[in-house]
Fold this sequence. Notes:
Layout: E1 6-10, H1 15-26, E2 30-35, H2 38-48, E3 51-54, H3 60-74, E4 79-82, H4 98-126, E5 131-135, H5 148-168, E6 174-180, H6 186-191, H7 197-204, H8 214-225, E7 236-239
Parallel strand pairs: 1-2, 1-4, 2-3, 4-5, 5-6, 6-7
Helix pairs in contact: 1-8, 3-4, 4-5
GO molecular function, one term: oxidoreductase activity
Protein name: SDR family NAD(P)-dependent oxidoreductase
EC number: 1.1.1.-
Amino acid sequence: MKKTRTVLVTGGAGGIGRGVAAAFAAAGDTVVVADRDAERVTRTAAELGVHGRVLDITDAAAISRELDAIEAESGPVEVLVNNAGLLTVHGALLELAGSDLDTILRTNVLGTFLMTQHVARRMVGAGVAGAIVNISSIGGRQPTPGMGGYESSKAAVDALTRWAAIELAEHGIRVNAVAPGPVLTEMLATGMPEGSPQRQAWESRIPLRRLAAVDDVAAAAVFLAGDSATHITGTSLPVDGGQLLT
């Protein structure tokens, strides 16, 4: 019989995070979704039948406080999914403001680092051989003009994944990443409707000729955190329909 785990999903109020939370909940885990948007967290938690916490992943004091609350309610976090990140700030190399790059890196890199550090400390202290899954991007390995700030942050997330994996292995804690290509979230589907030139341009770069569904990414996260992946750590798994092959 599968053991029920406490799973924390950051950025869990929508998009990929919501899909990941739903997948872990469907697998029988106790799921906590965390996000900065209190209204969306409350709504998502109610709709999925999971727990919700308001959290800014760049605020170390808030992380400590919310982890205390989660432990009191659901026990130690055994699976952390670092999904929260900033995708909407872009700009060409010659045009992107330094302050914008700082905002991207603070959220996507510092936030992921702080969550990993705080949760891993507690895993080690409690003797929990847990799993951490970071949501990265194939953009960390395959550049797209105008998206370099975001893609640089995801290359750093891949490096952070390897760093955490090698140092936490002695504690039985596995750290991996899922690296999607473009994912058909509700926001992306609205901005790039089926049949639009922009959507067709993206699909033409993908050997399987379709964008990833949210469920494709969620399934990879559940796999990497589960018993079928107990000898996998330090990897960044592309979920990209073969786009990195082109």
